[in-house]
Structures are given as C-alpha cells and as structure tokens.
Amino acid sequence: MGMLDHKVAVITGSTRGIGKAIAHEFVRQGARVVITSSSESNVEAAVAEFPPGTAFGCVCDVVSPLALEQLLSAAVERFGRVDCFINNAGISDPFCKITESDPEVWGKVIDTNLKGTYNGCRAALNYFLREKIKGKIINMAGSGTDRHSNTPWISAYGSTKAAIARFTFAVAEEYRQSGISVMLLHPGLVRTGMVSADNPTPELARQLNTFNTILDIFAQPPSVAARLAVQMASGWSDSKTGVYLSALNGRRKKWLLLSYPFRKIMNRIDRRSY
After folding, report:
1. d(CA 75, CA 57)
2. What is the mean pLDDT of residues 158-169?
3. What is the mean pLDDT of the chain?
4. What are the catalytic residues?
5. Contact assessment for residue 169 and residue 184, using Cβ atoms and an 8 Å cutoff
6. Alpha carbon separation from 222 to 21, 59, 270 (Å, rounded)
7. Terminal C-alpha separation, the chain
8. Across residues 14-35, what is the average pLDDT?
9. pLDDT (tens digit, 9 = 90+) per residue, 46-57?
C-alpha cells in the first residue's frame, strides 16, 4: 500500500528536474500522474520512463489561463478525477545585475513563475469547488521565499518566489473553510538546468568559485523534495492549509554545512545534474 494509492496528480513542468522526481515518487506511492511541459518531445520522452498506465502527458503553457483549464479537463478525461495539483513549472533569469538585464526576459520569468502559479491555482480551485473535492494544491517556493533569503543577480526569480509565498498563504486563507489544502513546498537547492554553470554569464563567471562551493555544500537530490511532496499530497494534510515545508530548513542547512568538510574529504559530494 502506498501513501497515494488511487490518487491522481497534475504536475506542471514535470519532464525533468524536481517536477519529474516528484512524479516518479508519486507513482511509487501508488498515484497516477499527468506530466506537462511546453515541449511535446519532452513530454513524450518523460512519459516513456513511467510504467504503462501510470502517466499521461499533456503539452501546456502555464502562462495561458485557458491552457490550464484544458489541462485539467484532459486529466479528468483520462483518469476520471484530479486530487492534487502541483504548480512546479518555473524558469530563472540569467545571472546578472538589473541594469544588464533584458526586460523581456525578466518579464517572462514573472509570467511563467507567478502568473503560471496563479493560473494553476485558479483552475484547480474552480475544479475542486465544482466537484466538491477536498483536493491538494502545492505551490513551489525557492530562493527569495524566506525573509532573509536575498537573491542578487537573479532578481526576477527571487521576486516571483517571494510573491508566490504571499499568494499561497492568501489563497489558503480565502479557502480555509472549503477543505481544500493550499500549501507551499521549498525544494531546497537542486542541481538542475536552472542552476547550471554551463555557458555562464560574465557575472557568474566572476563568481564561479563561490557559486560552485555553495552548490557543493547545500545542493541535494530532488528526491528530498519529492518525499515532502508525497507527505503534503497524502492524508497527512487533510484539514490542513497554509502549510509550509522546506527541504532546506534550518536544521537541514546546519547539517549540510557541518558535514561538508567530511563529505569533501570522502569524495561524497553528489555533482550530478537532474
């Protein structure tokens, strides 16, 4: 018996990285999942990794409100219902100062991360309320969410994560009496394409040693966040809302920092990209 037996989850941006890790963990725990991306080839490749019948793929641009509504309709048509909606799709701006940033790129990060989360929450809430389902909505936090987490050189990304936190808690309060759980998950620092040092900007190149050291100390595999996502999607969160869980909380940060010298000496630092 898995923690998510017979559950159906929609996970945006789930063809790679954290989203795909969450999808795999959900399937291991008995759920069926809907894999999404704006790229059809990426969706097809990701779905092929799952056991037959456990995953369904949809191309979806989260910037479009209509696309999110169509995504939910397709998920319900395929699996009969949706129990959990995870707003995971996100991008980051290039590592640079604001005066060197491209306004179009900066705005695209806002559209994808913040507006995409709004669109996903709105579509999921309308569905859960209409069908009288006490569903689970999980939004993704990140650098910029916590009060002392400044994000110089990635100001668009940090701004969206701060805003997503406030948005999540506002929506949780609005629907507190509905039985729908609206929650926030911080996946921690994970080596994905979003934090890659390949083809660095001039600013990142200047800070590359520091950047790589931070990754060596604090980066974790996405499985840590995936296990927390399972917990949030399970019966554990029934009658709870406004929950915030972090894969890089204070205790975890302290352990990673203190264990770093030993992991370095023992060559136990995981530098794989997910």
Report:
1. 9
2. 97
3. 96
4. 157
5. yes
6. 6, 23, 12
7. 28
8. 98
9. 999 999 999 999
The confidence score (pLDDT) of residue 192 equals 93
**Structure token pair of residue 218:** 């604090």
Q: What is the pLDDT of residues 36-81, one digit of tens each?
A: 999 999 999 999 999 999 999 999 999 999 999 999 999 999 999 9
Tokens of 118: 């709004």
User: Which whole-number Å values give the CA distances from 237 to 13, 21, 44, 170, 240, in the listed order?
Assistant: 23, 20, 32, 18, 5
Distance CA 94, CA 103 (A): 12
pLDDT in tens, 241-250: 999 999 999 9
CB contact at 8 A, 105 and 158 = no
For the chain, give the percent of residues with pLDDT over 90: 95
pTM of the model: 0.96
Structural domains in the chain, sorted by start: 8-190+220-249 (3.40.50.720)
What 3-state class would DSSP assign to 174? helix
Q: Do 135 and 181 meet the contact criterion of CB atoms below 8 Å apart?
A: yes
What is the phi/psi pair of residue 268, to 5°? -110, 25
Q: List Cβ neighbours of 158 (8 Å cut-off, separation of 6 or more).
A: 142, 143, 144, 149, 150, 151
Please give the backbone phi and psi of residue 84, each rounded to the nearest 5 degrees, phi first.
-145, 135
Query: What is the C-alpha R_g of the chain?
Result: 18
How many Cα atoms are found within 13 Å in the side-chain-facing hemisphere of 189?
A: 20
